[in-house]
Amino acid sequence: METSLQPGAQWPAVSPAAFAASAAHPPLTKAQKLLLPLGVLLFDGLFWQEKRGVNLLLFGLFVVAAQLVLLPRVAAVRRSGYFWLAVAGSLFGGAMVAVYGSGVAMLAWAASLLMLLGYVNQPHLKLVLYAVLTALNSAAQAWLRVLRGVRAPRQGGAGVRRGWFYGRLLVVPVVILGAFHLLFAVANPVYARLSGRALALLGSWLARLIPDISLGHLLFMALGFVVVAGAVVVVPVFAFADYESRFGEFIRRQRDGVASFGVRRPDFRLKTRRALDLRKEFYAAAAVFGLVNVLLLAVNAIDINWLWFGFEPAPGFDLAQFVHEGTYVLIFSILLAMGIVLWFFRRNLNFYQPGLRWLRGGATVWVLQNAVLAVSVGLRNYYYILHSGVAYKRIGVCFFLLLVFFGLGTVLLKIWQRRSAYSLVRLNALAVYAVLLLLAAGNWEVWIAEYNLQPRFRSVDIGFLLNMPDRVLPTLQARRAVLNHATQLTMDSEYGTGQVITAEEAQRRLDFAIHNAKAEYAAYTHWQGFNYADWQACQALR
C-alpha cells in the first residue's frame, strides 16, 4: 500500500531517537494483540490451582498454533527441519503428560516448546542448547517490550497520562522487588513468616475489594502474561546465532605462513617448526593410544571373564557398592577417553599423512574397547536390577549408556570424516533430546512397582514404592500379598537406609496411602488436570 502526500504537504517530523526505538521495537500486530489477552485467559483457566494433565497439551497446542499464525508464509522457519522437530516434540510431550502426567513428560514438553520458540527466533540455529537459551533470552525481554508499547488513552487528560507514565515506570522495580522477596523468604524463615502475614492481610483486603480475585491469583495472572508474551512476541536475539556461525561441521586444515598467489613469501622456518610440532604431537598421541589400549585390553579381558559369562555374586557380596562405585568410575573413564580423542583430533593432526593411518587405527581400537567397557557397565547395572530391583538411577544408567554408545559412534565419525567438535555436540544434543522424548513415553513408576513386587525378591523397599505418584497404588493393591511373604520390608528411600518394618505395618501404610488417594481423587473434579493414568488409577481403587 503506497502513501502519497498532497501538494505542499510535508512529512511529519520524527526524531532519530524515536525512529531507532520504533525500528528496535516495532508495534504489535493485530494477531499479537488478539493472542496476548486470549493466551493470558487461557493460561489462567488451564493452570490456576490445577494439576498437570490435559491442560499442558492444550496450552502447547495454543503456542504451536500461534507460531504458525504469526509466521509469514515465506519464512525460513517453515523450511527448518529443527522447527518441525520441535513442533512434533511439543505435541508428543503434551500428549504424554495427558496420558501419564509424569514429571519427565512435562520436562520434554517444556524443552520442546523452548526449542520451538528458539528456532522461530533464529531459524538458522542448529544447536538445541542455543535454541533454548535464545528462547529464554527473548522471553525475558518480551513482556517489557509489550509494556513499553502500551500507551495511555488519547482522550485522557494530563493527570491520566502522568499516572500511566509512572505506573509503567514502577513495573520493573516491583518485579525486582518480588524477586528479592522470594530470595529472602527462602533464606530467612522469620522474614518468610512475617512477610506471609503481611501478604495474607493484603490478600484479605483485596478479597473484600474484589471478591473473586486474590493476591495470589493476580500474581499468577502476571506470570501468565510473562509466559504468553514470551510465546507470542519475538524479540530477536542474535548472540547465540552469531556465536554458532563461527563453527563448521568439518575440520579445515590450517596453513600458517604459506604464500597465497605470490602475495607473501612463505616462511620456511615457520613451516619447519610447525611440522616438527605436529610430529611431536603425533608421537604423543601414538604413545597415549598404544599404552592405554594395552591397559584397557587387560581391564576388558578381566571384565569379560568375570562378568560376561556366568556371573553369580558370592554370599555376602556387596552388590550395591560393586555397581555404584564401579559404574561411576567406568563411566568417567569412558568420558575421559572421548575427551582425549577429541583433543588429539582437533586440528592439523587429522592431516598428518605419515602417521594418519596408524593414528586412526589406534584411536578406533580405543573407541571400540570403550564400547566393550560400556557393555561391562551395562552388565553391572543388569545384575543389580536382577538381584535388587529397579530404581530411577538404574533406569537412568540404561539410557545414559545408550547416549554413550551413540557418542562413541560420533567419535568414530570425527576420526574418519574429520568432523569438528561442534558437529559432535550438535549430534549428541539431538540424541539427548530424543532420549528425553523416549523417557517421556514411559509409565516408569508403574513398571518399577510391577517389577519390584515379584515374589522372587526377598527384600522389598516399600517406602520407595509408597513415595511414588498415586497412579502406582493400584499395582501395590493388586500385589499386596507379596508384602506378607517378603523376608524383609524396609522404609528405605532410593538414596539412603532406614528402618525395617513388619508386614502388618506395611499393609497399614498402604491402606493409609490408598485412603488419601481416594479422598484426593474424589475432591478433584476439574478437567484441566485430567490425565489418563490418574483416571485409570481412580477407577481401579474404587
UniProtKB/TrEMBL annotation:
Keyword match Membrane: yes
Keywords (A to Z) from UniProt: Membrane, Transmembrane, Transmembrane helix
UniProt keyword Transmembrane helix, yes or no: yes
Transmembrane stretches, start-end: 55-75, 82-115, 127-144, 165-187, 218-243, 282-308, 328-346, 358-379, 391-413, 425-444
InterPro entries listed in its UniProt record: DUF4153
Organism superkingdom: Bacteria
Signal sequence coordinates: none
A Pfam family matched in the record: DUF4153
Protein name as annotated: DUF4173 domain-containing protein
